[in-house]
Specification:
The chain is an alpha+beta fold and 580 residues long. Helix content is 36%, strand content 14%. It contains 15 helices and 13 strands. Strands 1-2-5-4-3 form a 5-stranded mixed beta sheet, sandwiched between helices. It has a 4-stranded antiparallel beta sheet with strand order 7-8-6-10. Strands 9-13-11-12 form a 4-stranded antiparallel beta sheet. A hairpin with a 6-residue loop joins strand 3 and strand 4 (158-163).
């Protein structure tokens, strides 16, 4: 007897192998529906109308500027080669090569984006003197160069400036070659021979960008999705690596991983899947685009099994080029909490977009930071002029993360601190000025006892001490730290002048932002006066005092409690009390 299977004319089914991108198989190989394609078109139209793309004229100017910088660094290396007594043939062959990295190399830069550039030079041209002194002076003498700011002590040493109005971040790497070929393959492992750690970090910006573009299934879909999510992160206040949030590389790696997990998805699907994946991600499990390569050059790679420090990382996002590093080591428990809240916000909006209940514009509604907390730390910095302020600001901003970490550590996570990655300017001040703000709240669900307090006087003093160690300090560089309640916020943080939240028309999603953070916090001044919220006033103020009023920029005496005074390079003595 012949079985029915034997009579079938159809060939036996053969399992089609699934192409694997990255360290795991895809979650889904599904492609887009017609609705997905239309949502992608709508998204791209929105991004164009939002001004996120560079015009042809702007792109041509940027290319021209990069070409002129290439000419400058080539002449610089030839000049140094001649001065050091090399032969005429060596002088003729002497060369430096400019590479790009970051958003420009990834193809997602906008009209006002920095051009991240790397200059690769020969072994006899060093960073400390030749780059930060000789080349610095050459650039300083050129009319096209403005706002020149060397940052030699940064984790990745950099020279910042504007060239004909184009912002440039220029790094330098001296490799173990007497002549740098014009067609140097920076992805080749040989460029890492006999170089120091800062040089490795400088080279890896380009190497990581190249690897990302090689590891994603569809480069154009990746670029559109990344451009969208960079805009979202900026609007929602979670775009700043130095503050402990997501920088451009971190976000590119997160987006690239989602592209690997959904290789046939179009941008509208990828944006939605981005939020779906990362609201459910179990940190500190790392995000990786490929397996970590050990290498034979002896550089340390990210490995929590061997390196105790790596075990402390809260949100590991691993770079794909050797030596593999955690690109998000700045993330703290507080900034991770804020990002997870924003991922959830994005996920909720995308679910509504897929149901055609809201449009893409809802995803990019600005986060109302100054409506979200009852209490804030305000950090004011001043300097004698704009150039000094630029250098001073960079130093202070790079250290603000330490204040967040100290508050987390010393209060055992019970007092949460939300640093906001934007600076504000009080134009009424006679000197150059910037202000940074941090939201304060007690940990939700935390059981507190009457009279329990968080004394952060020592923390602020320790922060002040670390700031005062700035090796390029000049007279006039000052810092003030103060505790302000929501109603005492200065007018210049509000784009339309000083208004209370009750006068603002909030969207439903912005109202959810506000309600999610409205947890009562009171404070105690040095004099011991306690300021508790009143039951009838949702902002913790007397109803007479809380009436909205228009006013111009507040000076220091208006914007902080009279008991709290600030002095140059000294912080306020603060005690924060939780309201029960």
């Amino acid at each position: 007897m012949v079985s029915s299977e034997g009579l079938s004319c159809s060939p036996p089914s053969v399992a089609v192998p699934v192409t694997q991108y990255g360290v795991t198989k895809p979650i889904s190989m599904a492609g887009p529906t017609e609705a997905d394609m239309q949502r992608s078109l709508d998204l791209e139209k929105f991004l164009v109308e939002a001004g996120l793309y560079e015009s042809k004229e702007e792109a041509a100017k940027r290319e021209q500027v990069l070409g002129r910088i290439q000419d400058i660094v080539t002449d610089w290396v030839k000049q140094l080669t001649h001065l050091r007594g090399y032969t005429n043939q060596m002088v003729e062959n002497a060369n430096a090569v400019i590479f790009t990295f970051g958003s420009y190399r990834l193809g997602v830069h906008g009209p006002a984006s920095d051009a991240d550039t790397l200059c690769v030079g020969p072994s006899y041209v060093n960073r400390e003197e030749d780059f930060f002194f000789v080349l610095h002076n050459i650039l300083a003498e050129r009319e096209e160069v403005t706002e020149l700011q060397p940052v030699p002590d940064a984790h990745v040493p950099v020279m910042k400036f504007k060239f004909d109005g184009i912002p440039i971040d220029l790094l330098y790497a001296s490799i173990s070659r007497l002549v740098v070929p014009q067609d140097l393959d920076i992805s080749d492992m040989s460029v890492l021979f006999n170089v120091d750690e800062p040089t490795v970090r400088s080279l890896n910006g380009c190497r990581v960008a190249d690897q990302i573009l090689k590891l994603v299934p569809n480069v154009e879909h990746f670029r559109t999705t990344l451009r969208c999510l960079k805009f979202w992160a900026k609007r929602r206040g979670v775009y700043s690596n130095v503050t402990g949030f997501l920088g451009g590389v971190n976000l590119a790696l997160l987006v690239a991983r989602v592209c690997q997990l959904y290789p046939n998805a179009v941008p509208s699907m990828l944006v939605s899947r981005f939020f779906r994946v990362y609201t459910q991600w179990r940190w500190p499990n790392p995000v990786m685009l490929c397996a970590i390569e050990e290498g034979e050059l002896g550089f340390s790679v990210w490995d929590p099994r061997k390196n105790p420090r790596d075990r402390t990382h809260h949100m590991p996002i691993i770079t794909p080029a050797y030596p593999c590093m955690n690109s998000s080591y700045n993330v703290s428990t507080s900034t991770l909490r804020v990002m997870m809240e924003q991922f959830q916000y994005g996920n909720n909006i995308c679910e509504k977009i897929e149901l055609n209940r809201v449009k893409w514009s809802c995803l990019f509604e600005p986060y109302l930071f100054f409506e979200s907390y009852k209490n804030y730390l305000q950090v004011d910095i001043l300097a004698a002029d704009a150039d000094d302020l630029r250098a001073w600001k960079g130093w202070v901003e790079s250290r603000l993360r330490q204040l967040t970490l100290m508050i987390e550590r010393n209060t055992y996570g019970k007092l949460q601190c939300h640093p906001y990655p934007h600076e504000y300017v009080d134009a009424s001040k006679p000197r150059a000025h910037y202000a940074f703000f941090m939201g304060l709240q007690r940990k939700r669900g935390e059981v507190v006892h009457e009279g329990q307090q968080f004394d952060i006087r020592g923390l602020v003093d320790e922060f002040r001490h670390s700031i005062s160690m700035y090796m390029f300090w000049k007279p006039g560089m000052e810092i003030y730290v103060s505790h302000v309640r929501r109603k005492q916020l200065p007018a210049y943080v509000f784009p339309d002048g000083y208004e209370r939240s009750r006068n603002l028309r909030l969207t439903p999603h912005q109202k959810l932002d506000k309600l999610s953070h409205d947890i009562g916090v009171a404070y105690q001044t040095e004099s011991g006066e306690k300021c508790h919220k009143r039951k009838k006033d949702p902002d913790g103020e007397n109803s007479e005092q809380s009436r909205p009023e228009k006013r111009k920029s507040l000076d220091r005496s208006q914007s902080v409690s009279p008991e709290i005074k600030a002095v140059s390079l000294a912080a306020h003595l603060l005690v924060v009390l939780l309201q029960i």
